Amino acid sequence: MQKASSIELEFSRKYNRAHAQQYLHKHSESLARRLSHWRDEQIARESLKLAGEPKVVLDLPCGAGRFWSLLAEQQDRVILAADNSADMLNVAKAAQPQELVSRITTFQTSAFDIDLEDNSVDSIFCMRLLHHIKDTEHRLALLREFHRVSRDTLIVSLWIDGNFKAWRRKKLEARREARGHTGQNKNRFVVNRSDLEREFEKSGWKVVEYRDFIPGYAMWRTYTLRKEH
Description:
Blueprint: H1 17-26, H2 31-50, E1 56-59, H3 68-71, E2 78-83, H4 86-95, H5 98-101, E3 104-108, E4 121-126, H6 136-149, E5 150-159, H7 164-178, H8 193-202, E6 205-212, E7 220-227
Parallel strand pairs: 1-2, 1-4, 2-3, 4-5
Antiparallel strand pairs: 5-7, 6-7
């Protein structure tokens, strides 16, 4: 198996300063995006409650700080925020309110090789990463690294099958392949639910509960997991 510290996925190289700026404004550029962000926040709050309102949280990847204000709603929460992209971190710190930024410890690191000691945080808050990871081997490496760093829970979102959007995406990709357009949209992937939950178990996580963005329709699912020792 490839060492976790040597893993660098192709999609991670795109997050330069220009892309980070685009990502910052992405979730507020239309009514549909703002409603989507509202639903993401609703699910995140519910997931944090399911995780027992953890006191020390690692937001990884933190992106442009989209969830920082939500994480900071608990006044005594200690927030660590990390990203593989230095540009993304710089954009986040410049864009978010400085009184909020002052509460957060930021650092650059890979999710496959987190620059923290074992059992350093109560929970890892991982939104919008796993849907970029195609290979089981890479997902297991990531989940095992999360298991090393978190002493209790993990909140993670990704695309899963068994819903209308996943069915439609599969049909669309089949048509593209039939036309020879095999290079499009290959940095985001739908995962089989049963396979994924076996990967959770194999890497030492137990499913507490999950929340679907729109049950039966949308691909996004957010799992709250608890560490098994």
